[in-house]
Amino acid sequence: MLLPTSIQYNIVLFSILGGILTGVLFDGYRLIRGVGAPRAIVIIEDVLFGGLCGLIVFTFLLYTNYAFLGLYVYIGIVLGFIVYMKTLSSYILKVERSSARKAGKGSRVIIKNFIYICKIIIYKIFEKSK
């Protein structure tokens, strides 16, 4: 069955967007993974990332183009990934790194304040029991 041109256009467009989504996920994975991990851990992380990324992209395609998985969809995903990595990756990676740093600082402040409050409460409890 032939699909109308507008649906074919949407399928190609969303497959390219799926490739860009894969690139964004890959940048996030590079940020999380870091360097210096043992080889066995890296292999396990890579397999888990591949599975998770595949599920996310398939779900994206399922909601946007009924998950038509023809050859041109895979070509669109690869092209979208390559275009993303060549053009936007460095900018998005900088944004992800600065966001991670700010989130880390914010969570450290919250945790330190929470620990400080807990110390005060524990100190008051043990001070009254003496």
From TrEMBL:
It comes from the Bacteria. NCBIfam families: spore_yabQ. The chain crosses the membrane at residues 6-29, 41-63, 69-88. It comes from Clostridium intestinale DSM 6191. Keywords: Membrane, Transmembrane, Transmembrane helix. InterPro entries: YabQ. This is Spore cortex biosynthesis protein YabQ. Coiled coil: none annotated.
